[in-house]
């Protein structure tokens, strides 16, 4: 397995170098261009072009943006009809080193986006935003438990309290949350029953005695804290930690799944949530306008509750608190 993973990385590295050479055939011009963009010594560029040292993920992202290289070119896909979404199956309970590398690479891309403003994040959510959950240990544990419950199909059924969460995964998740809060603007469209699915899951598993009463009380306390945080951010119209703009909208239409659109200086990532915590993602720029048009249309049919819309904001969070209060019954 490790050999296969290494071969895949080597193939991507070869494709990337070949694409660079195709973009700028003259070796001297290519070297000088890469030195100017990456601001590193020529010897370091030579080693990368020879394949002695791999380009870092952040370097690939910067060069792809500056030279107009698409993910299709890196994967060797040339047909105009193929617009691939990449689905990565991550083991959240027992992450491998490859899983950690993948997560860290994503954080590196976000860091690149932050340094190429404006960085705009647009997301729809029909459940609690996962990046925020990493700041709440029991919520993180529950979503990983649910993922493992459905992935491994444990027999006999495993209890929530038996689920382990790697500290390194939490740190990467919290770093992800921190980086997202540094976006120039963030637009969240929430469903009107944001907490309903989670509460329903918890009640069901509690009735099966797979989640203890003590754990349920702990999760309730974290949900209450998260609710206070979201309401305060909505009242201010910004992230409490960074002061960056944060806009909340409540959808009048049903939100079937989570969509995430990231845009920075003509660089794009479009993601669809799948398998509880997973994502299918693409960096194909031709997909972004369609998904952004869909997001904009949904936003027009939603109620804005950031800063203004105080009556609607108070009513919305009152409704969500009534939902989580069911955990105390």
Calculate the mean pLDDT score and round it: 86
Distance between the termini: 48 Å
Q: Using only CA atoms, what is the Rg?
A: 22 Å
Number of helices: 13
Q: What characterizes the major β-sheet?
A: 8 strands, mixed
Class inferred from helices and paired strands: alpha+beta
- Total E-strand runs: 8
Percentage of helical residues? 40-55%
Strand content: 5-15%
Query: Can you list the strand order of the major beta sheet?
Result: 1-7-6-5-2-3-4-8
Pattern of helices and strands: HHHHHEHEHHHEHHEEEEHEH
The low-pLDDT segments are: 1-8, 77-83
Query: What overall form do the CA principal axes indicate?
Result: globular
Descriptive tags:
329 residues; alpha+beta; eight-stranded mixed sheet; 13 helices; 53% helix; globular; disordered N terminus
Give a written overview of the molecule.
The N and C termini lie far apart (48 Å). Mean pLDDT is 86; it is low at 1-8 and 77-83. This protein has 329 residues and is α+β, with helices and mostly antiparallel strands. A hairpin with a 3-residue loop joins strand 6 (267-274) and strand 7. It is built from 13 helices and 8 strands. The longest helix is centred in the C-terminal third of the chain and has 24 residues, at 213-236. It has an 8-stranded mixed beta sheet with strand order 1-7-6-5-2-3-4-8, with helices on both faces.
Fold topology:
Blueprint: H1 2-23, H2 27-38, H3 42-50, H4 57-67, H5 71-75, E1 86-87, H6 97-114, E2 119-125, H7 130-133, H8 137-152, H9 167-180, E3 185-190, H10 196-207, H11 213-236, E4 245-251, E5 259-264, E6 267-274, E7 278-282, H12 288-300, E8 302-304, H13 310-324
Parallel strand pairs: 2-3, 3-4
Antiparallel strand pairs: 1-7, 2-5, 4-8, 5-6, 6-7
Helix pairs in contact: 4-6, 6-9, 11-13
């Amino acid at each position: 397995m490790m050999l296969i993973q290494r071969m895949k990385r080597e193939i991507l590295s070869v494709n990337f170098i070949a694409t660079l050479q195709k973009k700028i055939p003259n070796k001297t011009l290519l070297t000088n261009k890469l030195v100017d963009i990456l601001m590193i010594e020529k010897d370091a560029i030579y080693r990368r072009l020879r394949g002695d040292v791999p380009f870092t993920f952040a370097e690939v992202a910067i060069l792809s943006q500056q030279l107009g290289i698409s993910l299709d070119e890196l994967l060797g896909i040339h047909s105009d009809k193929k617009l691939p979404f990449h689905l990565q199956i991550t083991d959240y309970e027992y992450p491998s080193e490859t899983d950690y590398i993948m997560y860290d690479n994503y954080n590196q891309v976000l860091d690149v986006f932050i340094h190429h403003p404006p960085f705009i994040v647009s997301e729809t959510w029909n459940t609690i935003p996962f990046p925020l959950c990493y700041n709440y240990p029991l919520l993180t544990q529950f979503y990983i438990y649910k993922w493992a419950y459905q992935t491994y199909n444990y027999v006999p059924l495993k209890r929530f309290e038996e689920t382990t969460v790697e500290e390194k995964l939490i740190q990467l998740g919290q770093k992800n949350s921190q980086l997202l809060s540094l976006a120039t603007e963030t637009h969240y469209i929430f469903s009107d029953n944001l907490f309903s699915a989670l509460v329903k899951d918890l009640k069901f598993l509690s009735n099966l005695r797979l989640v203890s009463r003590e754990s349920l009380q702990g999760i309730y306390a974290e949900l209450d804290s998260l609710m206070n945080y979201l309401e305060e951010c909505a009242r201010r119209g910004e992230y409490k930690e960074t002061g960056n703009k944060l806009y909340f909208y409540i959808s009048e239409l049903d939100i079937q799944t989570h969509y995430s659109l990231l845009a920075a200086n003509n660089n794009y990532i479009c993601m669809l949530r799948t398998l509880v915590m997973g994502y299918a993602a693409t960096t194909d720029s031709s997909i972004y306008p369609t998904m952004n048009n869909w997001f904009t249309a949904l936003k027009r049919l939603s109620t804005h509750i950031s800063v203004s819309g105080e009556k609607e904001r108070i009513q919305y969070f009152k409704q969500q608190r009534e939902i989580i209060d069911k955990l105390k019954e």
